Amino acid sequence: MKNDEEGHRVILEDSFYPVMEGKSATYLHNRYLMGKVEGKSLFVNKFELFFLAIKKRISMENGESPPERELFIKLFEEKDIPMLKVFIDLKNSGGRVSIKGDSLILVGKNEARSKRRIIYPMRENQEISFDHLSKLDGSIIASVDDDGDITYYSVEHASLKGENRGLTDRPPIDRIGNRGIASSKDLPPWIGDSMGDVTVLSEQEMPFLNDKPPEDDIAAVYMHLLENGFIVRTGFKYGCNFRAYGGPMEQHAQFLVHVMRKTVQWYEISRAVRVAASVKKRMIFASPWEDTVGTIEVTRLKNVRDF
């Protein structure tokens, strides 16, 4: 049996490394669910090779373990570091992990291959736009901070429908600067800031009550939520634009909604999701998009396999 296990090696392009501890190429393939076996050779990609190196499964011709620092410099560029970090994390938790472009494909160890999770590594300060976020629908973002900690988030388009009825009558409004004044008795209590019989209206409420098109992205999202059955109030205390009630205000708001008007760094998304989770609300990012208003829910995953 010992002779059968001699000469087994791991190959990356034109470099090869003997398998250590008398194990075979097939053993490594089955043990770590990686690479392609041909005879006594296991063909791998650079991420798989480095993983086997830190697991002390391969050696150099002299029988010593390859220096990991030198191997790292040889194999990787700066842009590869988040991908490598997430690859190692996923492999350590078991399952089949493959690389496809700028994403990883995860299939759990005892799962059918049709159960594929698409995972995009992202550094904490990486910039992302609403358009980019929308294209990640149905996938997972693996956020890698500069301490090397990884947090996983699901990204899904959200179809938001509330149960509240909109206004049927528009009251007379007086303008003061960019804001408005109306009689409190003409408005439901969830609109504006009431002081006696005076209700002060915000810049978002003004075009809605005047039945005019929204003047900016924030007003467009506000009107979209109202038209879809939500009571909408400011989300200032939570660091976002709105909190949205699908039912009466006596119940807690189900959603926090933030309008993405520009490219942001990923940590801003992460921070908002953390705040929402801490107050047991769902975090929605919204923006006028194509011919409607797009809404995307981002959720922190305790376990990447929960998605």
Characterization of this structure:
This protein is of the alpha+beta class and 307 residues long. Among the domains are: 1-76, 3-Layer(aba) Sandwich (MutS, DNA mismatch repair protein, domain I), CATH 3.40.1170; 171-210, no CATH class. Helix content is 23%, strand content 31%. The chain is built from eight helices and 20 strands. It has helices at 25-32, 46-54, 68-75, 81-92, 130-135, 205-209, 217-227, 266-278; strands at residues 9-12, 15-18, 36-38, 41-43, 96-100, 103-107, 117-123, 127-128, 139-144, 150-157, 174-176, 179-183, 193-195, 198-201, 231-234, 242-245, 255-259, 264-265, 282-289, 292-301. It has a ten-stranded mixed β-sheet with strand order 5-6-7-9-10-20-19-17-16-15, with helices on both faces. A four-stranded mixed β-sheet has the order 2-1-4-3, covered by helices on one side. A four-stranded antiparallel β-sheet has the order 11-12-14-13, with no helix packed on it. Strand 13 and strand 14 (198-201) form a beta hairpin. The protein is elongated. It starts with 8 loop residues before the first strand and ends in a 6-residue tail after the last strand. The mean pLDDT is 91.
CATH class of the domain at 1-76: Alpha Beta
**H/E series, N to C?**
EEHEEHHHEEEEHEEEEEEHHEEEEHEE
Label the overall shape: elongated
Helix amount: 10-25%
- Tell me the β content: 25-35%
Give the neighbour order of strands across the main sheet. Answer: 5-6-7-9-10-20-19-17-16-15
Overall pLDDT score = 91
Which architecture name of the domain at 1-76 does CATH use? 3-Layer(aba) Sandwich
What low-confidence regions span 5 or more consecutive residues with pLDDT below 50?
none
Q: Please summarize the sheet with the most strands.
A: 10 strands, mixed
Q: What is the CATH topology of the domain at 1-76?
A: MutS, DNA mismatch repair protein, domain I
Number of strands: 20
* Rg estimate, integer Å: 27 Å
Helices, by number, come to 8
